[in-house]
Amino acid sequence: VQLQASGGGWVQPGGSLRLTCVASGFKYDDYAMGWVRQAPGKALEYVASTNFNGGAAYYGEYVKGRFTISRVNANGTLYLQMDNLRSDDTAMYYCVKGSSWPPTDLGQGTQVTVSS
Questions:
Q1: Span 95-116, pLDDT tens digits
Q2: By Cβ atoms counted within 10 A, which residue in 1, 5, 103, 107 is the most buried?
Q3: Mean per-residue pLDDT of the chain
């Protein structure tokens, strides 16, 4: 299983970023996929997930209404559109395979920093 996340960076509060995860090594459209994050000194936190075909999406309470998860099964890609970013969204973001908690398959993360 390989999960390669990208798209992180620095952004001012109120700004937007779009994260991308490219998945390989498994039958992508058989699995729910999601995003989790971890801020320094804090526990892993659930961000969002989508079912196997993208027909359903779920969000953590801290991101609901600001983040949008989507997927393209044809190319094994998962996205996270993040709008109206806040300083407390600063964290390493990871793409995860499946819906178990804690997640067992985390990819290489991408850092998101929100500050002025």
A1: 999 988 899 888 889 999 999 9
A2: 5
A3: 96
Structural contact between residues 54 and 38, judged by C-beta atoms closer than 8 angstroms: no
Bridge-based pairing state of the strands 2-6 and 67-72: unpaired
Residue range 65-85, pLDDT digits in tens:
999 999 999 999 999 999 999
Residue 56 in contact with residue 42, Cβ under 8 Å?
Answer: no
Which residues, in sequence order, are CB contacts of 89 under 8 Å at separation 6+? 37, 63, 82, 112, 114
| Residue owning tokens 């300083």 | 87
Q: What pairs with residue 53 in β-bridges?
A: none
